[in-house]
Amino acid sequence: MTHDVTEPAAAASGHATSDARRTGAVRRAPGGPAGTGSAGPNRRGDDWRKRLEILVFVTPALALIALFVAWPIVTAVRFSVYDWKGFGDLTDFVGLENYAEVLGDEVFRSAVGHNMVIVVGSILLQLPLGVAIALLLNRKMRGQGLLRTIIFVPYVLAEVIAAVVWLQLLQPQYGFIDAVTAQIGLTPPEQGWLGTPEYALWIVLLVLTWKYLGLAVLLFLAGMQGVSEELHEAAQLDGASWWQTQWRITIPLLGPTMRTWAFLSMIGSIQCFDMIWVLTQGGPADATATMATYLIDEGTKRHNYGIAGAASVILFVIAFAMALAYQVLILRRDTQDDTQRYTRAESALFGALSRKRKAA
Amino acid sequence: MSRKTQALAALCAGLMIAATGCGSSGDSGGDDNTIIWWHNSNNDPGKGYYEQVAKDFEKANPGVDVKVQAFAHEDMLTKLDAAFQSGDPEQIPDVYMERGGGELADHVEAGLTKDLSEDASDEIDMIGGSVAGWQVDGKTYALPFSIGVVGFWYNKDLFAKAGITTAPTTMEDFYAAVDKLKAAGIQPVSVGAKDAWPAAHYYYWTAVRECSEDVLTSAVKSLDFSDACFEKAGDDLVDIVAKKPFNNGFLSTGAQEGPTSASGLLATGKVAMELAGHWEPGVMQGITEDKKGLGDKTGWFAFPQIEGGQGDPAAQMGGGDAWAVSEGAPDASVDFVKYLLSTDVQTGFAKNGMGLPTNPDATGALTDPALADLIKVRDSAPYVQLYFDTAFGQSVGGAMNDAIVNVFAGKGSAADIVKATQAAADKEK
Questions:
Q1: Fold of the B151-316+387-428 domain
Q2: What is the spatial distance between Cα A217 and Cα A152, in angstroms, rounded to a whole number?
């Protein structure tokens, strides 16, 4: 807890520097960009102030990160190399045995598979649906606001509440969904939708889609607002139909938004827990177990904290690796210089349009 | 000092307090005359009754202060785990509940629980054989105050409607009853397999019928499941599941929450029976709107006998709760636990319907007729086998329960149950 000790010192010096900074800023203001106007001895003082300033503003955040992010991660790693029941000292060092056990556990491997199904399934379902709905809602029409709200409501609900609602709807035999299925002349599965191992994961995926489609639509709509009206007008002047405009202008320019959304969706899917815990608790027969339900099951339920620690570290590594890969392979395009990218998309667009015009 | 920096300083100071404060916020458990008592009777009449018990004890022992903390059951378990995890005697309650078996053995091994063998020898003698579940290496670490047994609770009306006149006693009777109920258009049995343990109770029971007491007792110690009876019990379970006696969608049915849970289905007359413990009438009362549960229609019969089984036909399977004293607790805590097992306290406990008392002089005080019948069954049993997931500990028990649910889902065999259990047990050795 060293940061706590440094805290008062940082705080005490904080107000002095902060006041100094303010006057400094005022003095510097007419002199052009910071650092170039002032010279000599003042400059060194400014450097110091700047450092202190950074220190003061960054320390609380760093302390919080250390306390609530770094320390738990370190603790999880520490637990993962011990055989520990949850009390007493950490004495039974087992090295990487817990990792071998987790990786050798069929339930964990299938849990990783389920996570991947949710990652891929969420994107495959929500991307086309989300874009379609966003395109629809982006047109001026009556009740637009209401429709947008309705689509967005599931996302606002707490995940647990949404899960409880669906749990009731999906109740075998007495639930709404089973009643509807029976009404239209189909036989609902004997074990209910969530109780049949073959269906359970897909049902969970559908509920997750219902829940998170609103976020995709919202982000895509926002992305669409960012597409310059001039481009639409230019396309219209050139005689492009509504479909052509969407297909060749809106959707390509929505790329960065889609990629960012897919990233968020992916991370959420890897950590998927609440919905599954309420709907199925990872069952039936581990058919919907995810990495998160696995580690809760091993940790809090079975008191195998070492195993749970190892599973959480593996989950962390998988999520981290996927995030990093996505960042490097896909998101990098969006973090390049913005104007370049835009020009490129635009030139591609105008190229396509002009080609089309020539053909016509 | 500008407002911004003031706020910053306040934030930093707050952070410091938050970071250091959590270490000292516990109760003064080290105080020689203060007993911190955790229990899970957080509803009246139980809650009020225990407060009165604490006051009575304080009156009889001047200078002793009993601090009562009532939790919802799950909250209590979480808090206990956290307190034990911290290893800080300030945070660990002085008197708390132990479920016995492997969990208790782990606590004992970690030096968290006090040996009561000498100090409470009278009470241990009084409770008799059932105390075995709370013994480790011949020493007693907790005093069970309520022990129940698991059996079939049934709806007498629905049984009559299906033409079943006597409660089943053998597996053949049971299957005949299931067929009759099905023929009458009634779903025979509900089971909350989503929560695993209600399904697991079926296997515990077939094992109690198939295995002799010696085999079970030595299995708890040796964690060796090679005796053929464990697999035979699994075969019996496969047979039961193949008979399809369970409610539609039992794999996604919860144990006790709401009208569509296994208990709810029984309470609302949707199924004819359910395998459950002594808590079932209370749970059903909580679910139905009139707070009566099945009322007069409530019936009970023991798990059917299995032909050729090695188990004692009168043996029971169940479990209970015991009062334990933590290692760092003041001496008065032991006296308090002994007081909790006294005829006075146990009689009030029985009168308030809080469980099945273990003090023989208090058993007559049960007012609930279903429980009064049940305690006779329990007391005439040669032994009550502790729930396997408790007896073998959560790690082995959890693996066993999962394998049992797989059988319910049609995804595993009898051999798989034994294999999964043994694999988890081998890690414990």
A1: D-Maltodextrin-Binding Protein; domain 2 (3.40.190)
A2: 8
